[in-house]
Amino acid sequence: MTPSTRQGRYARRRRRRLGLVDNDLTDAQWQAVQAAWGGCAYCGATGRPLQRDCVLPISRGGRYTVGNVVPACASCNASKCNAEVTTWLRRKKLDEKAFLLRLAEIRVALV
């Protein structure tokens, strides 16, 4: 059982949300997504462990699918949290247009 702390409540809500949707990202698809991006999708960092990040966050109705998951370094993933990706990219002064074009290209190639 998860403790009744803020973190515990968040973990329970997240598990409940994940259980309600179809998360169909396979390990092979995740490997293909990582290979297509070649590093962190947001900052381009390489040589670091990459985490699965939902472009549309789970808390906003997203799910773990090929079209919604990008590789992110721990720093970018933690910073983005559950923010909308375009707002977060602007706030961090990252190239929003380049990210969205690359995301569209990779989605077409993988989906």
Quick rundown:
The protein is mainly alpha-helical and 111 residues long.
What key attributes describe this structure?
single chain; mainly alpha; 5 helices; 2 strands
Question: How would you describe this protein?
Answer:
The structure is a single chain. The chain is mainly α and 111 residues long. The chain contains five helices and two strands; from the N terminus they run ααββααα. Strands 1-2 form a two-stranded antiparallel sheet. It is globular and about 40 Å long. The mean pLDDT is 88.
- The number of distinct β-strands equals 2
* Ends apart, CA distance between termini: 38 Å
Helix % is 40-55%
Q: Counting H and I runs of at least 4 residues, what is the number of helices?
A: 5
The stretches of 5 or more residues where confidence is low (pLDDT under 50) are none
Strand order of the largest sheet: 1-2
Cα shape: globular
Rg calculated over all Cα atoms: 14 Å
Structural class: mainly alpha
Average of the residue pLDDT scores: 88
Beta-strand fraction estimate: 5-15%
List the helices and strands and how they pair.
Elements: H1 6-20, H2 27-37, E1 50-54, E2 69-73, H3 74-80, H4 85-91, H5 96-110
Antiparallel strand pairs: 1-2
Protein name: HNH endonuclease
GO molecular function: endonuclease activity
InterPro entries: HNH_5, HNH_nuc
